[in-house]
Structures are given as C-alpha cells and as structure tokens.
Amino acid sequence: MRGGGSSPHNRAVEISAKETYVKIKSQKDFFSGLMFMGVGVAFAWGATTYNVGNGARMGPGYFPLLLGILLALIGAAVTFFSITIETQDGDKVGKWAWKQLFFIIGANLLFGVLLAGLPSFGVPAMGLIVAIYGLTFVSSLAGDHFRFKEVFILATILAVLSYAAFVWGLKLQFPVWPSFIAG
Known about the structure:
By secondary structure, this protein is mostly helical. Helices cover about 65% and strands about 0% of the residues.
C-alpha cells in the first residue's frame, strides 16, 4: 500500500516496537549509572597495563582492576534500577551547577599548587597544612552559605587529622609547612 497507508505488517512492527520500548524512570540515576560504568571500565582497562598478579601475590594493577570492576557493577545496578523503579516526575537532570563546578575544581587545583608549588613559575611549596586550609576555604565557596568560623574549624580538624594520618601514621614524605618556614 502506497501513499502512507498502513498494512497489517507495519502495524505489527509498530506494536512490537512499542512493547520493547524502555522508559527511563530516573534520568539522574540513569546517567549516574552510565558514568560509574564508564569510569569503572576505564579503571579496569587501565589496570591491565600493570602486573595484576593474583590474590596471594597482588601486583600494582590488582586493586585498580577490582575497583574498576566493582565500580562498573555498581553503575550497572544503578542504571538497572533507574529503569525499573518509578520516581516522582522522572527525576530529571537539571542545569549544570557552574558555580559549584568552578569552585570544587579550582579548590583541587589550588590544593595541588599549594602542596607542591610551581617551581617553573617561582611559586614555592606551601605544604600540607596551608594546602588543606586553601582547599577547604575555596571549596566552601561552592555552597549557598559561607560561615568563616565553621569553615575554619573544619579546616583545622582536617589539617590535624591529615597530619596524623599521612605524616605520623603512614610516614609519607612531602612538605608539611611552607618551604620558607621549614627550610
């Protein structure tokens, strides 16, 4: 049948296409699951370039491989539940949070620069303590409210716990104080 008419065969194809249609019930969970799967697969794939070893003698690629597989499985579960569990209004993905994205990424970059410095630009290493304070204060600007006293207390607690865990506990060797103070 020409001219836009529908034959019984075309109607059967339309019906079967409607029957196999999968509705995403939570967009946020669906895309989060895809992101977890992508990162997990990338970690697992990247880990295969290292010696994986076995359970008794783990190589440097063992943990990233298992972490990547676990992350991909969690992503698959989140994606599956996003198409099976009904959510209110479809849990739509909103607009990008540019302010939060800027301050969180900027805080992490600032942490790296403060911790190790930029010798090629003449920026000295400020050490772990200053880097944690910088990270905490800049990342707190991503929120709706900034309370100096609360952020200062949080930064102090993070600095003390980080010093105890990394310098005392793990005995890692990196600058703790600014290079012009520590020498």
